[in-house]
Design brief:
By secondary structure, this protein is an alpha+beta fold. It has a domain of 140 residues. Helices cover 28% and strands 17% of the residues. Strands 6-7-4-3-2-5-8 form a 7-stranded mixed sheet. The chain has a two-stranded antiparallel sheet with strand order 1-9. The longest helix is centred in the N-terminal third of the chain and has 32 residues. The radius of gyration is 31 Å and the shape is globular. The N terminus is likely disordered.
């Protein structure tokens, strides 16, 4: 094997020495950027018109105006001779911000849509909703209060179109009221309240809220029974 000329070897060494910092810098940039640019588990890629991302049943339902709270303004009140309130107390739950929820235990905002006849001034008001100050009730609430950290299976489920309470991810000491209010992507959970006491800018309940689908119930009178049609006719 013929040896390289000494001058060529020295020149090549100087060039490699000059390029070494640039090569190291390029490797460092690649090491930082490539993991960030690579698809991460649980993060869905962008959809296309021919291959759209999956949508949850909740997202599909919100396409219809009759499934959105803003379609039912409070000033629209039907004929009381034909309709009656579905319950004395009905309201839409609103999840407090993480900063608001960090204190005062398990509570949420509620925008009242129905109130008893002697509390009509509260209609449309946004009040705090919290549990009654009863030792046994407070003990049960503490038993089911927990930190929320969504794992990879939950993120995959959300990417696949399942309804996952992503708004609660990372929150600490989430109780039943906040878990119910944050169960959906938007503040559109409507509930009926029982065992209500009114305080200074707040409502306290002695029993869990019950989800309801509407604030009015129609009164129907059955006038007669219909006879079955004659198959021979």
């Amino acid at each position: 094997m013929l040896p390289f000329p000494r001058r060529l070897t020295a020149s090549l060494a100087r060039r490699l020495s000059a390029l070494l910092p640039a090569l190291l810098a390029a490797l460092l940039v690649a090491a930082v950027l490539l993991p960030a640019l690579a698809p991460r588990p649980g993060h869905a890629a962008a959809g296309t018109p021919s291959d759209p991302l999956p949508q949850s049943s909740d997202e599909l339902a919100r396409r219809s105006p009759w499934n959105r709270p803003e379609s039912y303004p409070l000033e629209q009140r039907p004929d009381p001779g034909l309709y009656r309130p579905s319950a004395e107390w009905i309201g839409r739950l609103i999840l407090p911000s993480a900063e608001e929820a960090a204190a005062d235990g398990d509570w949420v905002w509620i925008e009242l849509e129905q109130a008893p006849s002697d509390r009509q001034e509260l209609l449309g008001e946004r009040l705090r909703l919290r549990w009654a100050d009863q030792p046994e009730l407070q003990r049960l609430v503490r038993l089911v209060t927990t930190d929320i950290v969504l794992g990879e299976p939950a993120r995959r489920a959300a990417a696949a179109g399942d309804v996952v309470p992503t708004r609660l991810d990372g929150r600490r000491q989430v109780g039943p009221l906040q878990s119910l209010a944050g169960a959906r992507a938007l503040d559109d959970v409507t509930v009926r309240l029982d065992g209500v006491s009114v305080g200074d800018g707040e409502l306290r309940i002695a029993r869990p809220p019950v989800q309801t689908s509407g604030r009015w119930t129609a009164l129907v009178t059955v006038l007669d029974t219909a006879s079955a049609p004659d198959p021979a006719a």
